[in-house]
Design goal:
Length: 830
Amino acid sequence: MTVMAGLATLAGSIGLYPLFESGGWFWAGLGAVLAVAGAGVLARRLRLPAVVNLLFGLAGLLLYLNLVYASDAAWLGTIPSPESVGHLGDLSESGWRAANRYAAPVPVLPGIELMTAAGIGLVAVLVDLLAVRMRRAAPAGLPLLAMYSVPAAVREDGVSWLAFGVGALGFLALLMADAREQVGGWGRTVSSFRQREVPLAGADPRPDEGSALPDAAALVASGRRIAAGAVAIAVLVPAAVPGLQPRGMFGLGGDGNGGTQTVTTPDPLVSLKRELTRLDDSVVLTYRTNDPEAPDYLRLYALDKFEGDRWTYTQLDSHPRDRLDERELPPPPGLSVASSREVTTRVRVRPEVRDMSFLPVPYAPSEVSISGDWRVDTRSLMIYSLRDSADGRAYTVTSRRAEPTIGQLAAAGNHPADIVSRYTAVPKNVPREVKQLAEQVTAGSATTLAQAVRLQRWFTLSGGFTYDLSAPAPKHGSDLVDFLLHSKRGYCEQFAASMALMARILGIPSRVAMGYTSGSEVRPGQWVVRSRDAHAWPELYFEGTGWVRFEPTPSGAGGQGTAATPEYTLPETTGGGGEGSESEPAPESSSPADNGGPAPQPSARGRNDTGETGGAAAQGDEDGGFSAAPWLAGAVLVLLLLAVPMALRTFTRRRRWAALIPRPGPASRTRPGARAGARPGSSPGAVVRAAAADPAGAAHAAWREMRADALDHGLEWRASDSPRATARRLGELLELDAEGAQALARIARAEELARYALSRSPEPPERLRADVRTVREAFAASVGRGARWRARLLPPSTMAQTWDTLQSAGNRALDATARLNELPARLRRK
């Protein structure tokens, strides 16, 4: 068993191969497994307890690591010393930093090799303890499975089917060895023998070689077939399920990218709901900045593709050279140093945030300092990770904030060809009404800036739009037309997507950015961003300034509460623009497309701008991206499982009292108003009252309920005490008031009469039921809050009943299995 436990651990460790560039880690793990196995053998030879076996395994692992990685600082080169242990700690810390710096496969540095050997050794310690010392081979598969979870969580491709098969066979071999030793420990196998054939008269007797051999070949063959079939199903089924194997069945599809990995996420306009906590007004992150003015927005995504019904970003092909590695990021396109200034922001994301694989950073980031494997898309400057999440992390961002003037934007030259080709593309199926509307709104504009400002003012002032979080997210091109021409109700997604599309129709390079507004300032230089600050906005490109933010979404009480309109787009500053600028029209002199409707009215206040309230949240989950249905189903399942003991306790209580309710018998059908068991001469009303319930049954039910309540609240219950002694001890323990003492005494007296005197209880069932409720309240008042919640949610009386039920079901299953095992022998005998 010691040998098989070590082999199973080594077979399971093969699944770690995708994490490393070379195979040196395996030999370090082999040494750790051998050291742990030797220490386990020594502990068992000395017949030490299981806990000491665990300590021996850990000590053997420490001696091995000390000998291999810190022998220079150890006593006599082998015995751990404070210096050698400190060296192991420093080496582990350097390995941890290196593991966070590199993406898989990582180089086998000394620190990484030490961490790998220690991890494999710890698994070997647990497997040796469970399978060899405690003779529990099946639970030993859990630590073996834990090694597979590491590459499955780190790498998109997971583990190959061959490595999984090797580990599975190692675990099966461990189970077979354990079964063989357990059976062999009882001595020689007792089994049925093959029936001896009697030769015919005059025939030569056949040699009876096999008559003394047990007939176990059929069972052995069946066991092997079941094991092989289980491994085959575990390997083949996941490989055949669509979506589980991105490289095709058995990894034969390939990606042809030469080490490049494709970054895939759900639709960002929907997946932001997954990356934020679902609670309204919950804090997402906090940050400090040295920006003397109001900080700029924090951008997560830059959506550069419009597919006719939604915005998304071009597929990111991540390469190892895209890692941050404390280097300066590529320069932002079109942004000159003269029209920008440097800003430093220190961000801390709350630990409650989940799966934030894109970093919220101010545009345009020039340097990002964060631990882990984070990468940059050189075209959009989005910061993302293939394996890490931003939850609970703190990082520093140095960015270049654009400070354009009206004159600079108005005098911007022609756009570069690559910018025009990529950021002005519009699908052919865009409705003609939208194209005509864009031209009508901006008619008479002399510059690109004038067109952009007119579009923004049309959405926020003169177009008659209303900010409404309950509006459904656009899913088809017709939804966009309905928003622009008919309903004119929506939230930031519709406003940003529509303005960016109309800008492209006019030939202005545009994209949709998504992230958070600057949030709220809680003290000088310190800001808080909440879930309601999630936002989407358009960015338009101007040569010399680069990507510039616009704000078509209504802000303030009638819109996105923390949105801010850029100064370079305000009407009062634009009117006096520099050369080539155009004075902006007032709301009453709007373009022909303006309908002259009323000003936007408040329809949603202080809500998450991604539409997470009302119908928008439900509609957003149907946009083809992230769906909350599986998570909600899982949460409901967990809640149902947690509610089983409480529900069973409630059901048991009601069933006990419901059993006392009389059911109409034959007598009640022949004589209206009478009940079975009526005494001669009694009135029908008296008969009904007398037969309302069994007095002894009511006493027993009250006593059982009080016992269950005492156990649920953690009070001692002595089965050997009489009812009177139990009531006396509980009364002294609880220090009951007069009402509680009387209730306890009535319950004990009723049980005493029903148990010993075999006479009717003087108390009616309704009184006993009320007494049980009074005593239960006294139990709850005598214990702490934790005990009260445990009594409600996980009552021990029900847990014991559940365990007995499961144990009984397990025994019946074992009996059924034994009968199935005996079935072949019975059939042969027949």
